[in-house]
Design goal:
Blueprint lengths: L1 H29 L4 H10 L3 H11 L12 H16 L3 E2 L7 E5 L2 E4 L4 E8 L2 E6 L6 E3 L6 E9 L5 E2 L4 E2 L10 E5 L10 H7 L5 H10 L4 E5 L15 E5 L1 H8 L6 H11 L5 E11 L1 E4 L3 E9 L10 E7 L13 H18 L9 E7 L7 H8 L8 E7 L7 E5 L5 H15 L2 E4 L11 H7 L4 E7 L17 H20 L7
Parallel strand pairs: 7-10, 10-11, 11-12, 16-17, 16-18, 18-21, 19-20
Antiparallel strand pairs: 1-15, 2-15, 3-14, 4-5, 4-13, 6-12, 7-13, 8-9, 15-17, 19-21
């Protein structure tokens, strides 16, 4: 009996939905839709199948991992621009185009990269070679060549006289390979005031440049191992990112235990550098392009209200990923997922029946992975006055799982209310609203906007296995349903924001 009632209710729901859709079609041909009908029409136009197809396209081999500056990235830019044009979204880039160009050096990484340790055995030496991706990934901005030398452990690779701290004191790294940790020995989560004193030394670029300044010829960077093109390039400096296996082999037999050494540095804020006695070879095959050009993609849905159209809501995320290092890094979740949601919302909002009162700028950033450069450039050369930019909604890694996180939602409660209200009424997803201090080095385009005083919320997803900056970030990890729910949710929230008589999220 219960089963019969269930199927009867299901039948009535399906019948009602079909009749509603039919009514939409019939009414649209004879008269304008009501605001509520327009909203529902837009929601139902966004499908998980279409969004997943966008992710699949963006993560395809033909775009070669979307490294900003490459011809493959430029081809991807052209594809995004073609969609915006097809939907009637106006160009908002340079000289009447959809793109905004900016300087962006980049480095290509090719096969032939390796890391190995030289192990003395009787009267000979054994070469223990490490596994790509499991044990090491070549530095995405490494010089091309080979470095063989003894390894010196240099802690966090920091020289800070004003803090009475120098990881290079008492060790000679000239002509050697250095092993170092990422970040700094203090965290913004523990002591924000203290962290700000150490913050300049947490950047990858600083660490590499400091190693070069001390005469090192190579670096084993305890970072993942993951790929990361956010670093300096020095022609004769060879480096790779390594993980636990390599670090363990470096420390083996030295009398030091790695984790204990790191904890002591953090506790005492005193260096603990030493010569490990181990000999390593780092070999990378790269090609640097110092004159590379990057592109942001900008499309404007101009508001219909004569006054409110001058106010702009920015909706965006980064289009780029890591390219090849040396295998393809597809970047399905990071950030093809975010781009797919932006495209889904853009197409739905471009419907001629909607006519939002405020303008909405759809912004796809380049070079986020290379130092969050694209958004920085846009903010220095905005298409619309920043004081007229009422909010920025950022998407980054929204494709894996069944839960959403709204970073900085608690920083901007008035902005968050629009999104929360839309979720409560239409979508009913679990969303964790958090606060964002935004003190560390920039890892998101959202950080750049917040520093400019623009109210910003950045979305990500969780609740399923996902992979960061490695080859496994592919379409097999994507949850299409979370894409659909987020796109529908933000479509509703953005439309309500665009049509509100007055908003002040600052």
């Amino acid at each position: 009996m219960k089963a019969k009632k269930y199927f009867l209710r299901l039948f009535l729901v399906i019948l009602g939905y079909s009749l509603t859709c039919s009514a939409f079609t019939a009414q649209a041909s004879s008269e304008e839709l009501t605001a509520e009908e327009q909203l529902l029409k837009g929601i139902h136009s966004i499908s998980s199948h279409k969004l997943f197809a966008y992710v699949k396209e963006l993560a395809a081999e033909k775009y070669a991992g979307r490294l900003t500056g490459t011809k493959e990235y430029n081809t991807c830019v052209d594809w995004i621009a073609s969609l915006l044009k097809k939907w009637g979204i106006a160009p908002a880039g340079n000289n009447g185009t959809y793109v905004q160009a900016f300087p962006n050096p980049y480095t290509l990484v090719f096969e032939g990269c390796e890391v190995y340790i030289h192990l003395p055995y009787q009267d000979s030496v054994i070469k223990k070679r490490y596994q790509y991706e499991d044990d090491f990934i070549p530095g995405s901005t490494s010089g091309s060549g080979e470095a063989t030398a003894k390894v010196i452990y240099v802690g966090y690779g920091i020289t800070a006289p004003e803090l009475g701290y120098d990881d290079y004191k008492g060790v000679d790294v000239k002509g050697k390979i250095v092993l170092m940790e990422r970040e700094a020995p203090v965290s913004p989560n523990d002591d924000q005031e203290l962290f700000m004193k150490w913050r300049p030394y947490s950047f990858h670029q600083y660490k590499l440049e400091n190693a070069v300044a001390h005469g090192a010829k190579g670096m084993l960077y305890n970072y993942g191992p993951i790929a990361n093109p956010n670093n300096s390039y020095r022609e004769d400096f060879i480096y790779s990112h390594v993980g636990k296996v390599v670090v363990s082999d470096v420390f083996s037999g030295t009398g030091y235990e790695h984790q204990a050494v790191v904890e002591k540095i953090k506790e005492t804020l005193a260096p603990n550098s030493f010569s490990t006695g181990k000999v390593f070879t780092i070999k990378n095959h790269t090609e640097h392009h110092p004159d590379g050009i990057g592109y942001n993609v900008l499309g404007l849905l101009e508001g219909s209200d004569p006054k409110l159209k001058d106010e702009v809501i920015v909706f965006g995320g980064h289009l780029d990923h890591l390219g090849r290092c040396y295998e393809l890094m597809p970047g399905a979740n990071d950030n093809a997922s975010g781009v797919s949601v932006i495209l889904g919302v853009a197409e739905a909002m471009a419907d001629r029946d909607l006519k939002p009162r405020r303008s909405v700028l759809f912004l796809f950033f380049g070079a986020e992975e290379q130092g969050v450069v694209g958004s920085e450039y846009y903010l220095e050369h905005p298409s619309f006055p920043l004081e007229k930019t009422v909010a920025f909604i950022n998407l980054d890694g929204v494709g894996c799982g069944d839960k959403l996180r709204a970073l900085a939602a608690k920083n901007y409660p008035a902005l968050w209310r629009f999104i929360d209200k839309a979720n409560q009424k239409f979508i009913h997803r679990m969303i964790e609203a958090t606060h964002f201090a935004n003190l560390a080095r920039p890892r998101l385009d959202a950080a750049r906007f917040m520093w400019k005083g623009i109210p910003t919320i950045s979305f990500s997803a969780s609740g399923a296995p996902s992979y960061y900056h490695i080859t496994k970030d592919n379409i097999d990890t994507i949850t299409p349903e979370i894409l659909e729910d987020l796109a529908q949710l933000l479509f509703v929230a953005l439309l309500h924001m665009a049509n509100q008589d007055s908003v002040d999220f600052r």
